[in-house]
Design brief:
The protein has 15 helices and 13 strands. It is an alpha/beta fold and 356 residues long. The protein has a seven-stranded parallel sheet, sandwiched between helices. Strands 10-9-8-11-12-13 form a six-stranded parallel sheet, sandwiched between helices. The protein binds uridine-diphosphate-N-acetylglucosamine (UD1) and uridine-5'-diphosphate (UDP). Residues 11-12, 15, 202, 204, 234, 236, 260-263, 266, 280-283, 286 line the site of uridine-5'-diphosphate.
């Protein structure tokens, strides 16, 4: 039996950790201890995922959130270090590219505890993004690099990862695993009256929400789209706050605004929408799992295979481009012939590699 300490803290990490936790349990060879940094803390940003996805209660909850990057990452690193000194795990496991990811990887690597990074090799090539900084550094100090796609493997090779200090594994995408496991449990959000046809939209990226002009343009675009089809908009708390800033236009009445919904509810909303408008990393892929076209509200994406396959169009925050991309996909829905994210058994591959 080996001991693995997992560090998670943000909504996408709970989703990614769920199938891996199931695979760990099924293997019978791994004792997993979970640290929740507390980065996401509202019930609908955290607890709901543990309940719906049957993730064990965290062994440690650091309750660190709502801080600037340095303070958040620093306090998390300090607290994780203390736990790792006591726990002495064989591996430290992190997911994705948040401040919680970086804190976990930093604390462990300085203690010479090997780091395994799920969702390694993703690159936007935009170093202005906090996530790009987090993922580049995390990859650099990880021993096992679980890449979801061949593009991610290529990115690491291009950066000189040669296999000398770390091992690259093309595992497939654990979010694909999660969508397969939980799809049949998808459920309509309670008390939401849903139109027969709608566009699903989410917005939360710092580069969109913290920039008044971009946020204004995105709202303008959503309002225009909503003249053609109702828009369902589950709002991230960050966006909810910033939409109240001066200069941001009001959302039109044809936009159905709700708080963040649970995982089973977002799967339902995706499965039943006409198409998706989003700046989310995870939801770009989930759109593909559900064979929905995606207009991405960013200038670039880490998931370039979606764009290459014709399933995703990058529209940034340009209202005209967002609208024309929406129109294009409404009239020409792509055929989803290609499987881009593995076999749906990424969690098993990750478990096997950790046990080797
Ligand atoms: C973080 C990640 C981002 C990821 C996103 C997933 C970093 C740098 N960013 O962004 O990569 O895409 O999570 O959703 O790690 N808030 C609440 N309640 C919550 C959670 C957050 O009110 O449950 C508020 C915080 O107080 C803060 C704001 O939302 O004011 C932003 O939260 P933070 O965790 O810093 O960043 P995210 O935008 O969520
Ligand atoms: N999600 C959810 N409820 C919502 C919005 C999103 O359950 O209201 C899920 C969805 O599966 C998505 C994941 O949370 O892929 C990650 O969300 P987010 O967009 O916040 O993060 P990112 O993937 O951009 O880091």
């Amino acid at each position: 039996m080996i001991k693995i300490v997992t560090v998670i803290g943000a909504r996408p990490q709970f989703i990614k950790a769920a199938p891996v936790n199931q695979a760990f349990k099924a293997s019978g060879g791994i004792l997993e201890k979970i640290i929740h940094t507390g980065q996401h803390f509202d019930n609908n940003m955290s607890r709901v995922f543990f309940e719906q996805m049957n993730i064990p209660e965290p062994d440690f909850n650091l309750d660190i959130h709502s801080l600037p990057h340095g303070a958040m990452t620093g306090r998390m690193t300090e607290a994780i270090e203390k736990i790792l000194i006591d726990e002495k795990p064989e591996w430290l496991l992190v997911y994705g590219d948040t401040n919680s990811t970086l804190a976990g990887a930093l604390a462990a690597s300085k203690l010479k505890i090997p780091v395994a990074h799920v969702e390694a090799g993703l690159r936007s090539f935009n170093m202005e993004m906090p996530e790009e900084i987090n993922r580049c550094i995390t990859d650099r100090i990880s021993r096992l690099l679980f890449c979801p796609t061949p593009v991610a493997v290529e990115n690491l090779k291009n950066e000189g990862f040669s296999g000398k200090n770390s091992r690259i594994v093309l595992s497939g995408d654990v979010m694909y695993d999660a969508s397969i496991i939980f799809r049949e449990k998808a459920k309509k959000p309670a008390e939401m009256s849903l139109p027969g046809e709608y566009v699903l939209a989410t917005v939360h990226r710092a580069e969109n929400t913290d920039d008044v002009i971009k946020l204004k343009n995105i709202v303008k675009a959503l309002n225009t789209v909503s003249e053609r089809l109702p828009v369902v908009l589950p709002l991230h708390p960050r966006t909810r706050k910033l939409l109240k800033e001066p200069g941001i236009p009001a959302l039109s009445d044809n936009i159905i605004v709700t708080g963040p919904v649970g995982y089973l509810e977002i799967l339902y909303l995706l499965d039943n929408c006409r198409l998706l408008l989003t700046d989310s990393g995870g939801m770009q892929k989930e759109a593909c799992f559900f064979e929905k076209a995606c207009v991405t509200l960013r200038e670039e994406t880490e998931w370039t295979e979606l764009v290459d396959a014709g399933y995703n169009k990058l529209a940034g925050s340009d209202p005209d481009l967002i609208y024309s991309s929406f129109e294009h996909f409404s009239e020409n829905p792509p055929g989803f012939g290609r499987k881009l994210y593995g076999s749906g058994r990424a969690a098993e591959e990750i478990t096997r590699s950790l046990l080797m």
